[in-house]
Amino acid sequence: MNILIAGGGGVLGRLLIRELLAQGHTVSSFAYSAREFADLQSPSLKTFACNITQPEQLRGACCGVDVVISCVGITRLSGSLTHLDVDYQGNLNLLNEALRAGVKKFGFISPEGVDEGHDFVPLLEAKHLFEESLKKSGLSWVIFRAGGFFSDLREMGKSAAKGTMFVFGRGENRFTPVDVGDLARIMAADIFVRENAVVTVGGPQDMSWNEICRACFTYHGKPPKIFHIPVWVGRALLALIKPFSSKYDAMGRLILFMCTHDLLTEKRGEKSLAEYLRKAS
Fold first, then answer.
1. pLDDT tens figures, 83-94
2. How far apart are the first and last CA of the chain?
3. SS (H, E, C) 176-238
4. CB 143 within 8 A of CB 110
Protein backbone atom coordinates (compact mmCIF):
# COMPACT_ATOMS: atom_id res chain seq x y z
CA MET A 1 0.00 0.00 0.00
CA ASN A 2 0.96 3.65 -0.25
CA ILE A 3 1.42 5.09 3.25
CA LEU A 4 2.01 8.71 4.28
CA ILE A 5 3.75 9.29 7.63
CA ALA A 6 3.27 12.85 8.87
CA GLY A 7 5.99 13.94 11.25
CA GLY A 8 8.34 11.24 10.04
CA GLY A 9 11.45 13.00 11.30
CA GLY A 10 10.69 12.28 14.95
CA VAL A 11 11.70 9.18 16.89
CA LEU A 12 8.37 7.39 16.41
CA GLY A 13 7.93 8.50 12.82
CA ARG A 14 11.35 7.25 11.76
CA LEU A 15 10.76 3.84 13.33
CA LEU A 16 7.34 3.61 11.68
CA ILE A 17 8.92 4.34 8.31
CA ARG A 18 11.42 1.51 8.80
CA GLU A 19 8.70 -0.91 9.91
CA LEU A 20 6.44 -0.14 6.96
CA LEU A 21 9.26 -0.31 4.42
CA ALA A 22 10.23 -3.71 5.85
CA GLN A 23 6.65 -4.87 5.24
CA GLY A 24 7.01 -3.94 1.57
CA HIS A 25 4.90 -0.80 1.49
CA THR A 26 5.66 2.37 -0.43
CA VAL A 27 6.11 5.22 2.05
CA SER A 28 6.08 8.98 1.74
CA SER A 29 6.80 11.20 4.71
CA PHE A 30 7.20 14.83 5.60
CA ALA A 31 8.76 16.77 8.45
CA TYR A 32 9.35 20.45 9.12
CA SER A 33 12.88 20.14 7.71
CA ALA A 34 14.17 17.78 5.02
CA ARG A 35 17.39 17.42 7.05
CA GLU A 36 15.48 15.17 9.47
CA PHE A 37 15.55 12.42 6.81
CA ALA A 38 19.27 12.65 5.99
CA ASP A 39 20.02 9.04 6.97
CA LEU A 40 16.77 7.46 5.72
CA GLN A 41 17.24 6.17 2.18
CA SER A 42 15.15 3.68 0.19
CA PRO A 43 13.83 3.37 -3.37
CA SER A 44 10.39 2.94 -1.78
CA LEU A 45 10.62 6.12 0.32
CA LYS A 46 9.84 9.69 -0.71
CA THR A 47 10.49 12.48 1.80
CA PHE A 48 9.81 16.22 1.73
CA ALA A 49 9.67 19.27 3.97
CA CYS A 50 6.28 20.68 4.97
CA ASN A 51 4.85 23.02 7.58
CA ILE A 52 1.59 21.32 8.56
CA THR A 53 0.16 24.57 9.92
CA GLN A 54 0.17 25.99 6.37
CA PRO A 55 -2.62 24.20 4.42
CA GLU A 56 -1.24 25.28 1.04
CA GLN A 57 1.98 23.34 1.72
CA LEU A 58 -0.07 20.14 2.10
CA ARG A 59 -1.65 20.38 -1.35
CA GLY A 60 -1.09 17.10 -3.19
CA ALA A 61 0.64 15.41 -0.23
CA CYS A 62 -2.08 12.74 -0.04
CA CYS A 63 -2.51 12.05 -3.77
CA GLY A 64 -2.41 8.28 -4.36
CA VAL A 65 -2.12 7.58 -0.63
CA ASP A 66 -4.12 4.73 0.92
CA VAL A 67 -3.33 5.33 4.60
CA VAL A 68 -2.16 8.38 6.53
CA ILE A 69 -0.54 8.05 9.97
CA SER A 70 0.12 11.28 11.82
CA CYS A 71 2.85 11.53 14.44
CA VAL A 72 2.76 15.32 14.31
CA GLY A 73 2.86 17.27 17.56
CA ILE A 74 4.83 19.87 19.47
CA THR A 75 7.71 18.23 21.30
CA ARG A 76 9.88 21.23 22.23
CA LEU A 77 9.37 24.42 24.22
CA SER A 78 10.42 26.69 21.36
CA GLY A 79 8.82 28.99 18.83
CA SER A 80 5.46 30.73 18.98
CA LEU A 81 3.21 27.86 17.91
CA THR A 82 0.84 26.32 20.45
CA HIS A 83 -0.62 22.84 20.83
CA LEU A 84 -3.85 24.12 19.28
CA ASP A 85 -1.87 25.40 16.27
CA VAL A 86 -0.06 22.11 15.66
CA ASP A 87 -1.60 19.14 17.47
CA TYR A 88 -5.15 20.25 16.58
CA GLN A 89 -5.25 22.65 13.62
CA GLY A 90 -2.19 21.22 11.87
CA ASN A 91 -3.58 17.71 12.01
CA LEU A 92 -6.99 19.03 10.94
CA ASN A 93 -5.34 20.57 7.87
CA LEU A 94 -3.88 17.15 7.07
CA LEU A 95 -7.21 15.42 7.64
CA ASN A 96 -8.95 17.81 5.24
CA GLU A 97 -6.30 17.13 2.60
CA ALA A 98 -6.72 13.37 3.15
CA LEU A 99 -10.47 13.71 2.63
CA ARG A 100 -9.96 15.65 -0.60
CA ALA A 101 -7.55 13.00 -1.89
CA GLY A 102 -9.80 10.02 -1.08
CA VAL A 103 -7.51 8.45 1.54
CA LYS A 104 -9.02 5.24 2.94
CA LYS A 105 -7.78 5.32 6.56
CA PHE A 106 -6.24 7.78 9.03
CA GLY A 107 -4.11 6.78 12.03
CA PHE A 108 -3.26 9.10 14.91
CA ILE A 109 -1.10 8.90 18.04
CA SER A 110 -2.19 10.43 21.35
CA PRO A 111 -1.02 10.14 24.96
CA GLU A 112 -3.11 8.06 27.32
CA GLY A 113 -5.23 10.39 29.47
CA VAL A 114 -6.87 12.43 26.71
CA ASP A 115 -10.37 11.67 27.96
CA GLU A 116 -9.60 12.58 31.58
CA GLY A 117 -7.19 15.46 31.11
CA HIS A 118 -8.40 17.52 28.16
CA ASP A 119 -10.02 20.14 30.41
CA PHE A 120 -6.74 20.75 32.29
CA VAL A 121 -3.81 20.06 29.96
CA PRO A 122 -3.41 22.07 26.70
CA LEU A 123 -1.72 19.16 24.89
CA LEU A 124 -4.55 16.79 25.79
CA GLU A 125 -7.14 19.42 24.85
CA ALA A 126 -5.65 19.74 21.36
CA LYS A 127 -5.41 15.96 20.93
CA HIS A 128 -9.00 15.53 22.13
CA LEU A 129 -10.33 18.14 19.71
CA PHE A 130 -8.61 16.48 16.79
CA GLU A 131 -9.71 12.99 17.83
CA GLU A 132 -13.33 14.18 17.85
CA SER A 133 -12.91 15.71 14.39
CA LEU A 134 -11.36 12.49 13.09
CA LYS A 135 -14.18 10.35 14.46
CA LYS A 136 -16.75 12.56 12.72
CA SER A 137 -14.85 12.80 9.41
CA GLY A 138 -16.34 9.73 7.71
CA LEU A 139 -12.88 8.25 7.19
CA SER A 140 -11.92 4.91 8.67
CA TRP A 141 -9.71 5.71 11.66
CA VAL A 142 -7.45 4.21 14.33
CA ILE A 143 -6.37 6.23 17.36
CA PHE A 144 -3.36 4.88 19.24
CA ARG A 145 -3.06 5.90 22.88
CA ALA A 146 0.36 5.27 24.41
CA GLY A 147 1.90 5.43 27.86
CA GLY A 148 5.05 7.48 28.40
CA PHE A 149 8.01 6.69 26.15
CA PHE A 150 11.10 5.09 27.67
CA SER A 151 13.23 7.62 25.80
CA ASP A 152 11.43 10.52 27.52
CA LEU A 153 11.77 8.86 30.92
CA ARG A 154 15.48 8.41 30.34
CA GLU A 155 15.79 12.15 29.67
CA MET A 156 13.80 12.91 32.82
CA GLY A 157 15.98 10.44 34.71
CA LYS A 158 19.16 12.41 34.01
CA SER A 159 18.42 14.30 37.21
CA ALA A 160 19.09 11.02 39.06
CA ALA A 161 22.74 11.35 38.06
CA LYS A 162 22.79 14.61 40.04
CA GLY A 163 21.43 12.88 43.12
CA THR A 164 17.74 13.87 43.40
CA MET A 165 14.54 13.32 41.44
CA PHE A 166 11.32 15.28 41.93
CA VAL A 167 7.76 13.96 41.71
CA PHE A 168 4.44 15.71 42.28
CA GLY A 169 2.31 13.93 44.87
CA ARG A 170 3.13 10.64 46.53
CA GLY A 171 4.53 9.01 43.40
CA GLU A 172 2.14 6.08 43.71
CA ASN A 173 0.04 6.68 40.58
CA ARG A 174 0.77 4.15 37.87
CA PHE A 175 1.06 4.13 34.10
CA THR A 176 2.37 1.76 31.45
CA PRO A 177 5.46 3.21 29.73
CA VAL A 178 6.53 1.72 26.41
CA ASP A 179 9.58 1.41 24.19
CA VAL A 180 9.06 3.49 21.05
CA GLY A 181 10.31 0.60 18.90
CA ASP A 182 7.62 -1.68 20.32
CA LEU A 183 5.01 1.01 19.75
CA ALA A 184 6.06 1.49 16.12
CA ARG A 185 5.91 -2.27 15.48
CA ILE A 186 2.41 -2.52 16.97
CA MET A 187 1.13 0.53 15.09
CA ALA A 188 2.53 -0.75 11.79
CA ALA A 189 0.56 -3.97 12.27
CA ASP A 190 -2.67 -2.72 13.82
CA ILE A 191 -3.26 0.14 11.38
CA PHE A 192 -4.26 -2.44 8.74
CA VAL A 193 -6.49 -4.66 10.88
CA ARG A 194 -8.23 -2.30 13.31
CA GLU A 195 -11.20 -0.21 12.24
CA ASN A 196 -12.68 2.86 13.97
CA ALA A 197 -10.98 1.89 17.21
CA VAL A 198 -9.02 3.43 20.07
CA VAL A 199 -6.03 1.15 20.65
CA THR A 200 -4.06 1.53 23.88
CA VAL A 201 -0.42 0.45 23.85
CA GLY A 202 1.93 0.08 26.80
CA GLY A 203 5.03 -1.86 27.72
CA PRO A 204 5.12 -5.14 29.65
CA GLN A 205 4.52 -3.66 33.11
CA ASP A 206 2.59 -0.98 34.96
CA MET A 207 4.92 1.24 36.97
CA SER A 208 4.50 3.94 39.61
CA TRP A 209 6.51 7.14 39.46
CA ASN A 210 8.47 5.98 42.51
CA GLU A 211 9.40 2.80 40.62
CA ILE A 212 10.40 4.84 37.57
CA CYS A 213 12.65 7.00 39.75
CA ARG A 214 14.26 4.00 41.42
CA ALA A 215 14.97 2.46 38.00
CA CYS A 216 16.69 5.68 36.93
CA PHE A 217 18.81 5.77 40.10
CA THR A 218 19.81 2.15 39.51
CA TYR A 219 20.77 3.02 35.93
CA HIS A 220 23.00 5.86 37.15
CA GLY A 221 24.39 3.85 40.08
CA LYS A 222 23.09 6.30 42.66
CA PRO A 223 21.19 5.70 45.93
CA PRO A 224 17.50 6.68 45.52
CA LYS A 225 16.62 10.17 46.70
CA ILE A 226 13.10 11.14 45.66
CA PHE A 227 11.65 14.49 46.69
CA HIS A 228 7.83 14.53 46.69
CA ILE A 229 6.32 17.94 45.93
CA PRO A 230 2.81 18.42 47.35
CA VAL A 231 0.14 18.77 44.67
CA TRP A 232 -1.01 22.11 46.08
CA VAL A 233 2.51 23.46 45.59
CA GLY A 234 2.41 22.32 41.96
CA ARG A 235 -0.87 24.14 41.38
CA ALA A 236 0.49 27.28 43.05
CA LEU A 237 3.58 27.16 40.82
CA LEU A 238 1.37 26.90 37.75
CA ALA A 239 -0.59 29.97 38.85
CA LEU A 240 2.69 31.89 39.11
CA ILE A 241 4.07 30.65 35.79
CA LYS A 242 0.99 31.13 33.59
CA PRO A 243 1.09 34.97 33.26
CA PHE A 244 4.70 34.81 32.10
CA SER A 245 4.90 31.63 29.96
CA SER A 246 1.99 29.73 28.44
CA LYS A 247 4.44 27.09 27.19
CA TYR A 248 5.87 26.27 30.62
CA ASP A 249 2.37 26.38 32.06
CA ALA A 250 1.28 23.80 29.46
CA MET A 251 4.28 21.57 30.21
CA GLY A 252 3.75 21.88 33.94
CA ARG A 253 0.08 20.96 33.64
CA LEU A 254 0.99 17.84 31.67
CA ILE A 255 3.57 16.74 34.25
CA LEU A 256 1.24 17.44 37.19
CA PHE A 257 -1.61 15.55 35.53
CA MET A 258 0.54 12.54 34.70
CA CYS A 259 1.98 12.35 38.23
CA THR A 260 -1.44 12.41 39.88
CA HIS A 261 -3.53 10.05 37.70
CA ASP A 262 -3.45 6.34 36.94
CA LEU A 263 -2.96 6.06 33.16
CA LEU A 264 -2.82 2.34 32.47
CA THR A 265 -2.78 0.91 28.96
CA GLU A 266 -2.83 -2.57 27.47
CA LYS A 267 0.49 -4.38 28.04
CA ARG A 268 1.62 -5.17 24.50
CA GLY A 269 5.27 -4.12 24.35
CA GLU A 270 8.06 -6.63 24.95
CA LYS A 271 10.98 -4.54 26.19
CA SER A 272 11.04 -3.49 29.85
CA LEU A 273 12.31 -0.15 31.10
CA ALA A 274 15.20 -1.84 32.91
CA GLU A 275 16.24 -3.61 29.70
CA TYR A 276 15.96 -0.37 27.73
CA LEU A 277 18.14 1.49 30.21
CA ARG A 278 20.77 -1.29 30.26
CA LYS A 279 21.04 -1.24 26.46
CA ALA A 280 21.17 2.56 26.47
CA SER A 281 24.33 2.51 28.61
1. 999 999 999 999
2. 38
3. CCECHHHHHHHHHHHCCCCCCEEEEEECCCCEEHHHHHHHHHHHHCCCCCEEEECHHHHHHHH
4. yes
